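Schema walkthrough. Field components (list of strings):
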Amino acid sequence: MKNVLGREIPDYIEGYGEVKPFQGAFANYGTREKVGVKVSSVKPGEEKVLNSIDEALDKIELRDGITISFHHHLRNGDFVLNNVVYAIAKRGIKDITIAASSIFPVHEPLVEHMKNGVVTGIVANYISGPVARAISDGYLKNPAVMMTHGGRPRAIESGDLHIDIAFIGAPTADTYGNINGVYGNAACGSLGYAVADAEYADKVIAITDNLVAYPACPIEISQIYVDYVVKVDSIGDPKGIVSGTTRITKDPVGLKIAKMATKVIEASGLVKDGLSFQTGAGGTSLAVAAELKELMKNKEVVGSFAAGGITGYIVDMLKEGLFRNLFDVQCFDLDAVESYRDNPKHQGMSGSMYGNPHNKGAVVNNLDVMILGATEIDTDFNVNVTTGSDGVIMGGSGGHSDTAAGSKLAIVVTNLIKGRLPIIKDRVTTVTTPGESVDVVVTERGIAVNPNRKDLIEKLNNTNLPVMTIEELKGLAEKMTGKPEAIETSDEVVAIVEYRDGTVIDVVRKPIA
Amino acid sequence: MKNVLGREIPDYIEGYGEVKPFQGAFANYGTREKVGVKVSSVKPGEEKVLNSIDEALDKIELRDGITISFHHHLRNGDFVLNNVVYAIAKRGIKDITIAASSIFPVHEPLVEHMKNGVVTGIVANYISGPVARAISDGYLKNPAVMMTHGGRPRAIESGDLHIDIAFIGAPTADTYGNINGVYGNAACGSLGYAVADAEYADKVIAITDNLVAYPACPIEISQIYVDYVVKVDSIGDPKGIVSGTTRITKDPVGLKIAKMATKVIEASGLVKDGLSFQTGAGGTSLAVAAELKELMKNKEVVGSFAAGGITGYIVDMLKEGLFRNLFDVQCFDLDAVESYRDNPKHQGMSGSMYGNPHNKGAVVNNLDVMILGATEIDTDFNVNVTTGSDGVIMGGSGGHSDTAAGSKLAIVVTNLIKGRLPIIKDRVTTVTTPGESVDVVVTERGIAVNPNRKDLIEKLNNTNLPVMTIEELKGLAEKMTGKPEAIETSDEVVAIVEYRDGTVIDVVRKPIA
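Field assembly_structure (string):
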C-alpha cells in the first residue's frame, strides 16, 4: 500500500495492527469520541502518600503487557522513568510498553530492558540517544510508535493509546496529589504533556522529591486525577532538565538564514498587531525570534501570543510588551520557569490544548508564524526530523507537524548543506511533516516557496529575496556535494510514524549498516 | 420502599425512573466510570464567534426533549438562562430539561415555560423564588431533581446527567472560546460550577458581553471545550451577581451562637497549624469565621486552607496569613473576585474538585471544620435545607451534604426557634443531609452532639458549654412554641432529593395548602 504521499506502508504491521494510511493533513476531522475513564473514588480519610516506588507497585495491579506512561519535562535530567522501569523489571514483569512523551539519552537503561524482553513497546513523540539507536538496530520487539505532541493526547483521549499506569514526575506535590512544576529542586515549569496521562490513565502515581503540606498551589494537575503520591529522594538532575540547545546561534550562516526568514515573515504581511508566533529552541530558530523582535519593535507591533516550548528569549519579548501572552506547554530554561510561575500573562497549556487535532481547536490553529527545523526536505516539501541521513532515528516530530498544520506560515530554516550532505532531496528518508503544511524553506543560498502558496510567491517576488523553486535549491546543493546515495534498508519496520490524527504517514525500516 | 433513613420513597417515579435508595453517606464508593464525550473537532481557519443566541441555535440540533445546562455564578443577576430559554421556546421546542447548577428568583420566566410545556424538567442544586414555588405547586411535568454541588459534576461525569447543550455565561471570552470570570462588566470570579458542563456536554456555547481578542487570560475554561462564542449586550446585572446575604449578623443571638460554635471548634482540638475551614455565607456562619479569626490569631495558628463560596471575610483571613491558601468554587462578593484574580494563593476549583464523591478525592475530604445552616434538624441529626416548614421548596443542598460528609467536624449553627417554630423536630420535612454526617448542632440555648461522636462529647463535657441531648434541645424549644403540627402532603412527588452519590435520600411531595 502507498499512502497519499506515495510512501510504501504495509496494510498490517505485526506488533502494531491495521494501518490507517495518511490521507492529508486535514482529511480527518469531524466528530470524535473521547473515551470513558475508570476512576477509583477516594473516601474522606483515605490517604495517598507512599514511601517508595515499590510501595506503589504493591498497590496496583502489575501484569505482563501493561502500558505505563511518563512525561518528558525533566528531559535529559529525568530519573523517574529509569527508576520505575527498574522497579517493575525486578518483579519479573515482561512485555511492557513505555508511553513516554519523549525519550532522551538519559534513558539508555531502556536498551537493556528491550534486549531482555521487559520492554517490548515504545510510544513517544521524540526519541534521541541510545534508545533511538537500539530501536533502529531492531532491538525492540514491536515497532516503536512515533507520535506528535498533539497526536499523543489525541491518542490518549480517544482510547487509541490506553495507559494502565501513568507515573508523573512531580517537582512539587502535596499529600493529596496536587502537582506543580514551578517549585522544588527539579522545577521544570509547565507540565503540559502530563495532563492527558493524568486525565485518562487507569491509575496515576505522582512521584515527587518535594512533598509539601496540603494544598500545593499553584495546581497544574489536580488531586482529582491522582491515586497515589510517592516520596523519593530525587526525581531528576536540574542540570539535565534545562536543555543545552536553547542558545541563539553564533554561526554567521545561521544568522543570515534568520535574517532572510524574518524578511519572509515581513513580506507575508503578518507582522501587525495580533501577530502570533512560535519557534523551536534550535540556534537558528531562536535567531529568527531575535530578528523578529527588532522588527516588531521598529514597527511598534504588539503580538497576541507566542507559544510552544518557551525560552528566556520569548519571555523577554513578553516582558517588553511585544506579545500580550505566552502559551507554554514546556519550559526550556529557568527564565521560562520563573516567568511561568510569576507572570499571569504566561499561561500554561496541556498537550491537547497545544496541538490535538481532535479537540475543539488547539492553540496551533491560531498560530500565524511557525519557525521549524529540518533534517531533510524533499521537493514535495515533506520534512524529515525523525531519522538522520543514515536512516537511524534521532528525533521525531514533537510539535513539528502540529504547528506546521496549524500555522498560517510555516517556515523551515536550515543550512542548505549539513555534514557535507544536501538537506534537500528528491525523497526524504522519512516523512515527519507533510509538504502540504510547509510553506517556505529558507536556506543561506535561497528560498523556496511551496507552489500551493501562490499568494506568498507573489509577495516575495516583490522583494529582493533569492526566491527559487525547490528543485533549483536542490540543484544548488547538489552542485556542491554531488547527489547523495539512497540509504539501503531492510524490510523490517522498526518504527511507525503516526501523523497527529493517528494515520500512518511513514514507517522507519531498519537500515542496512 | 423506605430508605436507610426511614424515608418513604417509591421504587419508581414517573418522569424520573428507577430509584436507587440512599444507603448511607459512605456506602457508595469504589471504582466508577466517567463517560465518553463526543467532540466536534475544529480545523484551523474555522471560526467560533456568532452574533446572537439565535445564530447559535441555528448551528446546533435543537429538538424536543433536550437537556440544556447553565451555571449560576451570575446568581440573581443572571440574564443568560432566561434569554436562552426564551429563544428556544420561540422556535416551538418543547419538553426541555433545564440543568442549572442553581435557580434564583430572577428565573421567574421559567414558571410560564413550565406551564406551557416548554420546560418539563429541572435539575438543580438549589432553587429559590417563584420557580421553587411553582415546582412545589405541581406545575413542572416531571419531578425536579435536586442534586448537590458535588453530586452534579458526579452525575455529569458519570453520564447520569447527559447535557445536550451547555450555555456558559462568560464574563470574558475570547474569539476562540477561552473564558474567564474575572474581567468584564459581569465579573463573578471563579466559574467552578461550569467546568463539568464544558467538559461533558455535546455542545458548549459561551455567551459573553465582553468579547476580547485572542487569547483571553487567565483561562478558566479552555477553548478546547467550547464550540461557539456568542456576543450579546449583557449577560447579567452586576448588582444581582453579588449576593445580599454575605454580611456578618448583627443579631446578638446569632453572635452568641457563633461564639459558642467557635468554642466547640476550639474544644475539638482542631485549631492548630494546618486547620482547614469552610463556612456558608449566612450571617451567623460568617460570624463564626470572625470569631475563629480572633482565636487563630491568639493561638498563632496558620491554617492550610479555607474553601467554598468565598467572601471578603475569608479573603481577609488569607491576607492576614491565617490560611496559606483558598479554594474557590464561587466568589460571593467583589473582594473575593479581586483576590481570586490577583492572588495566586487564592486558587480556583471545579465543582468536581470541590465535592464530587466519585473522583479521586474532593477538597471537602480534607476539610476539618464546616459551618452549616439548617431550616430543620431532627433528632437523628438529619438536616433540611431544601423545604420550608410549610413543605415548599426554598433552597437545596448546594454544598451542604458534600461538606458535611467530607469534614471532620460539621457544625450546624441555628437559632433554636425561627418564625415561632422550633428548628428541631422529630422528623424533618425533607432530608437534605443525613444525620450521620452532622456532628454538632449549636443553638443559643444549648449544644447537641451526635451520639456517634463520643470523642467529641467527652471533650465538650470538659468545657462549660451547655451540652445536652438533641431530645433535650427539642424539648426546650417545644416548651416555648408547643409542638408544631405535621405538614400535610399529597402523594404527588414534585421533587427528588438526590444525595451526592446519586441515590435518593428523600422526595418532596406536594403540600396540601
